[in-house]
Design goal:
This protein is of the alpha/beta class. Helices cover 41% and strands 23% of the residues. The protein has a nine-stranded mixed beta sheet with strand order 3-2-1-4-5-8-9-10-11, sandwiched between helices. A two-stranded antiparallel ribbon has the order 6-7. It binds 3-hydroxy-5-(hydroxymethyl)-2-methylisonicotinaldehyde.
Length: 279
Protein backbone atom coordinates (compact mmCIF):
# COMPACT_ATOMS: atom_id res chain seq x y z
CA UNK A 1 0.00 0.00 0.00
CA UNK A 2 1.32 3.43 -0.88
CA UNK A 3 1.83 6.15 1.68
CA UNK A 4 1.52 9.91 1.24
CA UNK A 5 2.52 12.50 3.81
CA UNK A 6 0.67 15.78 3.58
CA UNK A 7 2.17 18.83 5.23
CA UNK A 8 -0.21 21.74 5.76
CA UNK A 9 -2.44 23.29 8.43
CA UNK A 10 -5.58 21.79 9.86
CA UNK A 11 -8.43 24.26 9.69
CA UNK A 12 -10.84 22.54 12.05
CA UNK A 13 -13.94 23.67 10.17
CA UNK A 14 -14.06 24.94 6.63
CA UNK A 15 -13.36 22.02 4.32
CA UNK A 16 -9.83 22.82 3.26
CA UNK A 17 -6.25 21.75 3.90
CA UNK A 18 -6.00 18.55 6.00
CA UNK A 19 -9.74 18.05 6.53
CA UNK A 20 -9.88 17.64 2.75
CA UNK A 21 -6.55 15.89 2.12
CA UNK A 22 -7.11 13.12 4.70
CA UNK A 23 -10.48 11.82 3.46
CA UNK A 24 -9.60 12.16 -0.22
CA UNK A 25 -6.25 10.38 0.07
CA UNK A 26 -7.88 7.65 2.17
CA UNK A 27 -10.65 7.29 -0.43
CA UNK A 28 -7.94 6.85 -3.06
CA UNK A 29 -6.80 3.76 -1.15
CA UNK A 30 -3.58 5.35 -0.02
CA UNK A 31 -2.26 5.71 3.54
CA UNK A 32 -2.40 9.35 4.63
CA UNK A 33 0.24 10.49 7.09
CA UNK A 34 0.20 14.14 8.08
CA UNK A 35 2.26 16.88 9.60
CA UNK A 36 -0.17 19.56 10.77
CA UNK A 37 1.68 22.87 10.62
CA UNK A 38 -0.93 24.85 12.57
CA UNK A 39 -4.40 24.43 14.05
CA UNK A 40 -6.98 27.05 13.15
CA UNK A 41 -10.63 27.14 14.20
CA UNK A 42 -11.55 27.85 10.57
CA UNK A 43 -9.69 28.87 7.42
CA UNK A 44 -8.75 32.51 7.07
CA UNK A 45 -11.55 33.43 4.69
CA UNK A 46 -13.75 33.75 7.77
CA UNK A 47 -13.19 37.45 8.14
CA UNK A 48 -12.47 37.63 11.84
CA UNK A 49 -12.17 35.74 15.07
CA UNK A 50 -10.49 32.59 13.82
CA UNK A 51 -7.96 31.07 16.21
CA UNK A 52 -4.44 30.14 15.11
CA UNK A 53 -2.06 27.89 16.99
CA UNK A 54 1.31 27.49 15.34
CA UNK A 55 2.86 24.00 15.28
CA UNK A 56 6.14 24.84 13.56
CA UNK A 57 8.06 23.47 16.55
CA UNK A 58 6.58 19.99 15.90
CA UNK A 59 7.84 19.64 12.33
CA UNK A 60 11.46 18.73 13.09
CA UNK A 61 10.79 16.36 16.02
CA UNK A 62 8.17 14.48 13.96
CA UNK A 63 10.57 14.28 11.05
CA UNK A 64 13.43 13.08 13.27
CA UNK A 65 11.29 10.37 14.82
CA UNK A 66 10.19 9.18 11.38
CA UNK A 67 13.80 9.07 10.20
CA UNK A 68 14.69 6.89 13.20
CA UNK A 69 11.76 4.61 12.37
CA UNK A 70 12.95 4.56 8.73
CA UNK A 71 9.54 5.54 7.33
CA UNK A 72 9.44 6.44 3.70
CA UNK A 73 6.82 8.03 1.49
CA UNK A 74 5.61 7.46 -2.05
CA UNK A 75 4.54 11.09 -2.18
CA UNK A 76 5.00 14.25 -0.17
CA UNK A 77 2.20 16.71 -0.75
CA UNK A 78 2.39 20.21 0.69
CA UNK A 79 -0.29 22.90 0.77
CA UNK A 80 -0.87 26.05 2.80
CA UNK A 81 2.21 27.02 4.83
CA UNK A 82 2.17 29.85 7.32
CA UNK A 83 5.70 31.24 7.66
CA UNK A 84 9.20 31.50 6.20
CA UNK A 85 10.39 29.12 8.88
CA UNK A 86 7.85 26.50 7.81
CA UNK A 87 9.03 26.90 4.23
CA UNK A 88 12.62 26.16 5.29
CA UNK A 89 11.56 23.16 7.36
CA UNK A 90 9.47 21.73 4.53
CA UNK A 91 12.41 22.03 2.13
CA UNK A 92 14.60 20.22 4.66
CA UNK A 93 11.90 17.54 4.97
CA UNK A 94 12.04 17.03 1.18
CA UNK A 95 15.83 16.66 1.36
CA UNK A 96 15.60 14.18 4.23
CA UNK A 97 12.82 12.01 2.76
CA UNK A 98 13.08 12.20 -1.03
CA UNK A 99 14.04 8.85 -2.57
CA UNK A 100 13.96 7.69 -6.19
CA UNK A 101 10.31 6.73 -5.82
CA UNK A 102 9.08 9.81 -3.95
CA UNK A 103 6.82 12.18 -5.87
CA UNK A 104 6.80 15.72 -4.48
CA UNK A 105 3.59 17.65 -5.16
CA UNK A 106 3.52 21.30 -4.10
CA UNK A 107 0.35 23.36 -4.00
CA UNK A 108 1.54 26.88 -3.09
CA UNK A 109 -1.86 27.73 -1.58
CA UNK A 110 -1.63 31.43 -0.75
CA UNK A 111 -3.60 33.54 -3.25
CA UNK A 112 -6.50 33.72 -5.69
CA UNK A 113 -8.22 36.18 -8.01
CA UNK A 114 -5.20 38.47 -8.14
CA UNK A 115 -4.86 38.79 -4.33
CA UNK A 116 -2.74 37.16 -1.65
CA UNK A 117 -4.66 35.54 1.21
CA UNK A 118 -4.64 37.31 4.55
CA UNK A 119 -1.23 37.49 6.19
CA UNK A 120 0.91 36.80 3.12
CA UNK A 121 3.37 39.13 1.40
CA UNK A 122 5.09 39.24 -1.97
CA UNK A 123 8.33 38.14 -0.28
CA UNK A 124 6.53 35.10 1.08
CA UNK A 125 5.36 34.23 -2.44
CA UNK A 126 8.97 34.43 -3.66
CA UNK A 127 9.99 32.08 -0.84
CA UNK A 128 7.18 29.69 -1.83
CA UNK A 129 8.75 29.58 -5.30
CA UNK A 130 11.78 27.90 -3.68
CA UNK A 131 9.45 25.15 -2.38
CA UNK A 132 8.02 24.67 -5.89
CA UNK A 133 11.62 24.46 -7.12
CA UNK A 134 12.01 21.17 -5.24
CA UNK A 135 8.76 19.65 -6.51
CA UNK A 136 8.14 17.11 -9.25
CA UNK A 137 4.77 18.75 -9.88
CA UNK A 138 3.59 22.18 -8.74
CA UNK A 139 -0.08 23.11 -8.99
CA UNK A 140 -0.59 26.85 -8.44
CA UNK A 141 -3.45 28.90 -9.80
CA UNK A 142 -2.53 31.82 -12.04
CA UNK A 143 -2.47 34.34 -9.18
CA UNK A 144 -0.04 32.22 -7.17
CA UNK A 145 2.16 31.63 -10.20
CA UNK A 146 2.34 35.36 -10.96
CA UNK A 147 3.25 36.26 -7.37
CA UNK A 148 5.94 33.57 -7.27
CA UNK A 149 7.45 34.61 -10.58
CA UNK A 150 6.96 38.37 -10.24
CA UNK A 151 4.93 38.34 -13.47
CA UNK A 152 2.04 40.66 -14.28
CA UNK A 153 -1.31 39.06 -13.41
CA UNK A 154 -3.84 39.07 -16.22
CA UNK A 155 -7.01 37.58 -14.80
CA UNK A 156 -9.09 37.30 -17.95
CA UNK A 157 -8.69 37.35 -21.68
CA UNK A 158 -5.07 36.23 -21.49
CA UNK A 159 -3.31 34.81 -24.49
CA UNK A 160 -1.99 31.31 -24.91
CA UNK A 161 1.54 32.76 -25.21
CA UNK A 162 1.18 34.51 -21.84
CA UNK A 163 0.16 31.25 -20.14
CA UNK A 164 2.76 29.14 -21.92
CA UNK A 165 5.47 31.59 -20.86
CA UNK A 166 4.33 31.37 -17.22
CA UNK A 167 4.25 27.57 -17.35
CA UNK A 168 7.76 27.44 -18.79
CA UNK A 169 9.02 29.84 -16.12
CA UNK A 170 7.41 27.72 -13.39
CA UNK A 171 9.08 24.61 -14.79
CA UNK A 172 12.39 26.48 -15.00
CA UNK A 173 12.23 26.88 -11.21
CA UNK A 174 12.71 23.10 -10.97
CA UNK A 175 9.65 20.87 -11.30
CA UNK A 176 9.30 18.58 -14.31
CA UNK A 177 5.57 19.32 -14.47
CA UNK A 178 4.22 22.84 -14.06
CA UNK A 179 0.44 23.01 -13.80
CA UNK A 180 -1.88 26.00 -13.77
CA UNK A 181 -5.34 25.40 -12.31
CA UNK A 182 -8.43 27.46 -13.04
CA UNK A 183 -7.50 28.04 -16.70
CA UNK A 184 -10.00 29.15 -19.30
CA UNK A 185 -9.58 29.99 -22.98
CA UNK A 186 -13.21 29.58 -23.90
CA UNK A 187 -16.38 30.93 -22.34
CA UNK A 188 -18.11 28.32 -20.22
CA UNK A 189 -15.02 26.13 -19.94
CA UNK A 190 -12.57 25.75 -17.05
CA UNK A 191 -9.70 23.39 -16.46
CA UNK A 192 -5.94 22.96 -16.27
CA UNK A 193 -2.92 23.54 -18.40
CA UNK A 194 0.34 21.68 -17.80
CA UNK A 195 3.87 21.86 -19.18
CA UNK A 196 6.07 18.77 -19.16
CA UNK A 197 9.60 20.12 -19.24
CA UNK A 198 11.25 16.79 -20.04
CA UNK A 199 9.07 16.15 -23.08
CA UNK A 200 8.80 19.88 -23.90
CA UNK A 201 5.08 19.50 -24.38
CA UNK A 202 1.87 21.10 -23.14
CA UNK A 203 -1.24 19.30 -21.97
CA UNK A 204 -4.64 20.81 -21.27
CA UNK A 205 -8.00 19.58 -20.12
CA UNK A 206 -11.25 21.47 -19.63
CA UNK A 207 -14.82 20.87 -18.61
CA UNK A 208 -17.82 23.01 -17.74
CA UNK A 209 -17.25 26.31 -15.92
CA UNK A 210 -19.92 26.79 -13.27
CA UNK A 211 -21.03 30.36 -12.57
CA UNK A 212 -19.57 30.34 -9.03
CA UNK A 213 -16.22 29.94 -7.36
CA UNK A 214 -15.77 28.24 -4.03
CA UNK A 215 -13.18 28.21 -1.31
CA UNK A 216 -11.17 25.01 -0.92
CA UNK A 217 -11.42 23.76 -4.48
CA UNK A 218 -7.65 24.06 -4.91
CA UNK A 219 -7.11 21.69 -1.98
CA UNK A 220 -9.66 19.23 -3.37
CA UNK A 221 -7.94 19.41 -6.73
CA UNK A 222 -4.42 18.88 -5.35
CA UNK A 223 -5.48 16.06 -2.99
CA UNK A 224 -7.42 14.15 -5.64
CA UNK A 225 -4.59 14.68 -8.14
CA UNK A 226 -2.01 13.25 -5.72
CA UNK A 227 -4.33 10.35 -4.85
CA UNK A 228 -4.73 9.56 -8.55
CA UNK A 229 -0.97 9.69 -9.13
CA UNK A 230 -0.56 7.17 -6.31
CA UNK A 231 -2.99 4.88 -8.15
CA UNK A 232 -0.40 4.77 -10.94
CA UNK A 233 -2.28 7.11 -13.25
CA UNK A 234 -0.12 9.36 -15.43
CA UNK A 235 0.18 13.05 -14.58
CA UNK A 236 -2.16 13.84 -17.49
CA UNK A 237 -4.80 11.32 -16.41
CA UNK A 238 -4.49 12.40 -12.78
CA UNK A 239 -5.12 16.00 -13.82
CA UNK A 240 -8.25 14.89 -15.71
CA UNK A 241 -9.49 13.01 -12.63
CA UNK A 242 -8.88 16.06 -10.44
CA UNK A 243 -10.76 18.38 -12.82
CA UNK A 244 -13.73 15.98 -13.03
CA UNK A 245 -13.87 15.34 -9.30
CA UNK A 246 -13.59 19.01 -8.35
CA UNK A 247 -16.37 19.87 -10.81
CA UNK A 248 -18.59 17.11 -9.44
CA UNK A 249 -18.00 18.38 -5.89
CA UNK A 250 -19.05 21.88 -6.99
CA UNK A 251 -22.15 20.48 -8.73
CA UNK A 252 -23.15 18.62 -5.57
CA UNK A 253 -22.73 21.84 -3.59
CA UNK A 254 -24.90 23.85 -5.96
CA UNK A 255 -27.57 21.15 -5.88
CA UNK A 256 -28.15 21.96 -2.22
CA UNK A 257 -30.55 24.82 -1.64
CA UNK A 258 -28.76 26.47 1.26
CA UNK A 259 -25.21 25.45 0.58
CA UNK A 260 -22.26 26.57 2.69
CA UNK A 261 -20.25 29.45 1.30
CA UNK A 262 -17.05 28.24 2.93
CA UNK A 263 -16.37 24.95 1.17
CA UNK A 264 -17.73 22.42 -1.31
CA UNK A 265 -19.57 19.11 -0.85
CA UNK A 266 -16.67 16.94 -1.96
CA UNK A 267 -17.93 14.20 0.37
CA UNK A 268 -20.92 13.65 -1.93
CA UNK A 269 -18.61 13.33 -4.95
CA UNK A 270 -16.36 10.59 -3.50
CA UNK A 271 -18.24 7.84 -5.38
CA UNK A 272 -17.47 9.68 -8.63
CA UNK A 273 -13.79 9.91 -7.60
CA UNK A 274 -13.64 6.14 -7.10
CA UNK A 275 -15.30 5.64 -10.48
CA UNK A 276 -12.75 7.95 -12.13
CA UNK A 277 -9.85 6.13 -10.45
CA UNK A 278 -11.07 2.72 -11.59
CA UNK A 279 -11.40 3.70 -15.26
O1 LIG B 1 -7.57 26.43 1.07
C1 LIG B 1 -6.32 26.91 1.36
C2 LIG B 1 -6.21 27.32 2.78
C3 LIG B 1 -5.67 26.44 3.69
N1 LIG B 1 -5.51 26.77 5.00
C4 LIG B 1 -5.91 27.95 5.45
C5 LIG B 1 -6.48 28.88 4.60
C6 LIG B 1 -6.63 28.57 3.24
C7 LIG B 1 -7.19 29.55 2.34
O2 LIG B 1 -7.61 30.61 2.69
O3 LIG B 1 -6.87 30.07 5.09
C8 LIG B 1 -5.70 28.29 6.90
Amino acid sequence: MKRIVSIQDISCLGKCSLTVALPIISAAGVEAAIIPTAVLSTHTAFTEGFTFHDLTCEIEPISEHWQKEKFDFDAIYTGYLGSFEQIDLVKKFFDDFKTDKTYIVVDPAMADNGCLYKGFTEDFAKAMATVCAKADVCVPNLTEACFMLGEEYIGEGYSREYIENILKKLAALGPRYAVLTGMSFEEGKLGVMCYDKEEDKFFEYYNERLPVSFHGTGDIFASSFTGALMNDLSVEDSLKVAVEFTLEAMRKTLAEENYNWYGVNFEQAISKYLELLSK
